[in-house]
Amino acid sequence: MKVDIRIGLVTISDRASRGEYVDRGGPAMLEHLRSHVGPSWTPVVRVIPDEQHIIEATLIEMCDGEGCCLVVTTGGTGPSARDVTPEATEAVADKMLPGFGELMRQVSLRAVPTAILSRQTAGIRGNSLIVNLPGKPSAIADCLDAILPAIPYCIDLIGGPHLDTISDITAFRPPEGGSSHLASGLAQEESSS
Amino acid sequence: MKVDIRIGLVTISDRASRGEYVDRGGPAMLEHLRSHVGPSWTPVVRVIPDEQHIIEATLIEMCDGEGCCLVVTTGGTGPSARDVTPEATEAVADKMLPGFGELMRQVSLRAVPTAILSRQTAGIRGNSLIVNLPGKPSAIADCLDAILPAIPYCIDLIGGPHLDTISDITAFRPPEGGSSHLASGLAQEESSS
Amino acid sequence: MKVDIRIGLVTISDRASRGEYVDRGGPAMLEHLRSHVGPSWTPVVRVIPDEQHIIEATLIEMCDGEGCCLVVTTGGTGPSARDVTPEATEAVADKMLPGFGELMRQVSLRAVPTAILSRQTAGIRGNSLIVNLPGKPSAIADCLDAILPAIPYCIDLIGGPHLDTISDITAFRPPEGGSSHLASGLAQEESSS
Predict the structure, then answer these.
(1) What is the ipTM score, two decimals?
(2) Is a pLDDT exceeding 90 seen at residue A138?
(3) Spatial contact of A132 and A85, defined as CB atoms under 8 Å apart
(4) pTM of the full predicted structure?
(5) DSSP string of A45-63?
(6) What domains sit in chain A, N to C, each tagged with a CATH number?
(7) Which residues of B132-146 are buried (b: 16+ CB within 10 A; e: fewer)?
(8) Which residue in B120, B132, B136 has the most chain C C-beta atoms within 10 A of its own C-beta, making it the best mutation to test that interface?
(9) Is A178 in the C-facing interface, judged by CB distances under 8 Å?
(10) How many other C-beta atoms can be found within 10 angstroms of the C-beta atom of residue C1?
(11) What is the rounded radius of gyration, in angstroms, for the C-alpha atoms of chain A?
């Protein structure tokens, strides 16, 4: 029996949600994940405005209702008054993973000094990983390239389905495989450093 | 009609506020900003003790009362019991910008391993950006050099006046200029990475 | 009269606390600290399960009861549901030191891309510094090597005993010594950058 793997893609933009723009962030996330994440999975797509309660409700629906093991967002992570994606992510998450935002800002800093204005973060809700990606399509690719190697093992650890990476990106799992406990590490060999 | 641009400079130090020390952090911030930020602006200067409620009241006055688009602080970001500048900043901010602290610590780490003890951060209050700088004058310059390229665009995004950088530092704004939405990025070309 | 310096070592692992595993994280921390931190000190060791209230009570006992100037933990910092060490640390800390987690993730990223899944952090409680180390023994050494140079000065600043580093790691203290105020830096020369 095959597990139906579902990945949520949420574009957060007042203008895209009103149809004033063609959403380019959502398709950029979809294309990049299609090329780099396997086995086959079903995308669950939303385009919503920059309203915190709508973002929260959508993230909850994606995780709890749609059963997405991974939910990526684009938009709403800057310093503007309407940018509330990180606040919504934190509000619905059981725990935060600050390392994602740190690494994405570091990668984006190589391209633009304004990368420090991004408030991108990531968090766990139940068996789902939520990651805020940038709004800009080219920055989405850079950030996904940096974080994708860690995502399959993260989803193992939170009880999600077995994802893998394809193409030029390589998912990393500790030598002992999915049964080990990253943080306690007591079951792990010292082989990886 | 010219906009009166105001920048707040707050020295936070029990001893400087009692006159036991000559404040060197405040003048260091002033000199560095004078040399690197244009067009002409008016400094609003305060020297206050390490009391959280006084720091909070001063930051609020700088942002809401004095109309400073940028407020920089020096002092009070270490691990000591009296160091409460980050707590005060977070208490008055609408949203936090963790990328500033991350980058400033990275830059300071090149000079001293104790840079990880610094709890510097940054946040937005209304149309104002608040940034905690280190207490040490030489570290102030290093940190400002690293973050200044991102500050004018940040102030654009939060509805402040048009700042620019002068001298050897170059403000970065995305090609589409001040009207674009950093986070949604839906209006942006893929030209910058 | 000699001060009795005490350092707490807390292994946080359901399985180690039940005796299903031999605790390897605790001994790895002890061995590394023994080789790199002086003068002589007394270890205070605990092995406890991944229960937030037990972790909090243990950290409080280590800081307030046992008088440990430094408490290091291993385990419980990953994304799994049972990983709650950072939450417990934040709950008992007076102030957080985000620079420790940032640097430890950066160092661990050189070995494994899954380092971004670690939620390690550090905080101050009274006169004690609490630092979350990874669960994996080899990663413990890498992280301690990175942060140890900053720890003696941190403990000076929070009113703890005078620690020093031995062997190949060098504790860094600003030229003016323990009386200076890292954050205000008003007493400091500009000599270190």
Answers:
(1) 0.90
(2) no
(3) yes
(4) 0.91
(5) EEEE-S-HHHHHHHHHIII
(6) 6-192 (3.40.980.10)
(7) bbbbbbbbbbbbbeb
(8) B136
(9) no
(10) 3
(11) 16
